[in-house]
Amino acid sequence: MPELPEVETIANGVHRRIAGDAIVSAWFSSYKEPFKTPPDEMAAVLAGRRIDRVRRVGKHIVIDLADPAPPRPPSREALPLHAQCLIHLGMTGRLLVSAPGVPIPPHTHAVLSLASGRELRFVDARRFGRIGLVQGFTGPGSEPLTISKDDFAALFRGRKLAIKAALLNQSLLHGVGNIYADESLFRARIRPTRRAGRLTRDRLDRLRTALRAVLQAAIRAGGSSVSDYVDADGVRGFFQIEHKVYMRAGEPCLVCGTPIRRIVLAGRGTHFCPSCQK
Q1: pLDDT means per 10 residues in the chain (278 residues)?
Q2: Which residues contact 168 (CB under 8 A, 6 or more apart)?
Q3: Is the distance from CB of 49 to CB of 23 less than 8 angstroms?
Q4: CA 234, CA 224: separation in Å to the nearest integer?
Q5: Which of 165, 239, 262, 265 would staple 270 via disulfide (CB 3.0–4.6 Å)?
Q6: Class of domain 4-134
Q7: What is the reported pLDDT for 240?
């Protein structure tokens, strides 16, 4: 599943290409799974709207929609004045900006035709992704790239669950997934099984710094392509070459040479160095 850096990369790429463009029409597939809002309602709301901004909130992509100019016809006054199109990529979702002549990929579930002639396409082979209309979406948890030291420490105070599980809890920090939890804990030298509520303030400060650094580095690298992830142009990221522990079970630690271990924690494969992480 794309995590914060991958979703940030996609959102930024889509924003650069279609911000300010207008939606002429919207097509949706006949499958019900990807849609949180009825397709007919989405088509009515989206047609004529201008795309004000495309951004990431947690693991979601938010398309902020503005009214067209001139104002919409009176028959549409009952529709929301300010709406957002909310997209979650699920396990295999892709959001691509394409010329209309480019063949539509299999498993395409939404196509927004734009005034510029381009198309915004939502593709999802497994249909675990979601697309719908919302208003005022802020995400379920705190933003890891901007959270303060005090607020970060407060998230884990008194919590009995393992710190790895806490990092994956989207109601605490939204956007962090398996890859970047493992990589951040390694860089902070914290074993993933440590109880979150027992970590010292120094360790939590160290973890916050490591998490922010890992996420920012991954964004600069275009994310990690370890499965189906590609950006808005269909290009793979390359932060996977910087992974220190994730998917390196049995290989020597790049710091001390101890073999990287893999365990299952909170239902997720978890990678760490038993020597460096205490």
Answers
A1: 90 96 97 95 95 97 84 52 88 93 96 98 95 95 97 97 97 95 98 98 98 94 70 67 94 98 96 98
A2: 176, 177, 178, 181, 266, 268
A3: yes
A4: 13
A5: 265
A6: alpha beta
A7: 85
Angstrom distances, CA of residue 229 to CA of 9, 120, 134, 143, 176: 11, 17, 25, 22, 16
> How would you label 238-250 residue by residue, b for 16+ Cβ within 10 Å and e otherwise?
ebbeebbbbbbee
DSSP assignment letter at 236: -
Active site (catalytic) residues: 2-3, 59, 268
The pLDDT of residue 232:
59
What is the pTM (predicted TM-score) of this model?
0.88
Class of domain 149-272: mainly alpha
Residue-range domain boundaries for the chain: 4-134, 149-272
Asked if 4-134 and 149-272 have one fold, the answer is no
Q: Cβ distance 236 to 228 under 8 Å?
A: no
Q: Which of 209, 182, 60 is closest to 133 using CA atoms?
A: 60
Contact 21, 114 (CB under 8 A): yes
Instruction: Let me know: does 195 contact 214? Beta carbons within 8 Å.
Output: no
Helix (H) or strand (E) holding 122: strand 119-124
